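Morning run. Coffee first, then this:
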Amino acid sequence: MTTTVEDVKSDVRSDVASGDDTGGVFEAPGGNLRIADWLFRSKAASVVWLVARLWLGYEWFNAGYQKLWGSEKAAFWYGGGAGVKGFSAAGVAGSATGKSGASYGWWAGFLHNFVIPNASWIAKVVTLSELVIGALLILGLFTGAAAFLGLGLNVIYMFSGSAGVNPAYALVALFLILAWRNAGYFGLDRYALPAVRNLFHRGSHVKGATLVAPRAVVPLH
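And here it is:
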């Protein structure tokens, strides 16, 4: 019997309609890798992300706490930004010698011309940012956005020549960003994300016209 192109198309449509997994053991029905589908969409994996975000949240919150009320308060919140000045000056000096400093001349120029002269208010912004990032991660509220902001600070610190804990924090933050759908399921995101989705969905309808609604949050399974 001769197989035509239309027969092949019909078979493909039937497989798609029936939800057959044509990708093998490594691919989920939706086309994603099974491990990725489990990590970034399932409720079970939310326990993994709970541990990760509580650890990272505590580290960020404690860093901000020390700058506002703890051992570093004299160098940040109350010290005219002495901590930021010293950190930036070390990055500039290291850039000149090629050791433990800013690796790029343009970034060293940014530190010298902008950060050091404005160290006082920048120190306060850094302090509050670390506190807010830590609190949001601990609460599981807008986890993806909080992790993204934390990753931004890690990149800034690393650009300035500080490694330390930043690579580890950045790696965990990156995975939390990828897991934004379920990383905060055991937290306030369980309620906040559906509320935000519904808010945008209601706002997508305008009198006399229908706008395309934003992509809905994929339900966990």
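Residues 14-23, 206-214 have pLDDT under 50 and may be disordered. Good start to the day.
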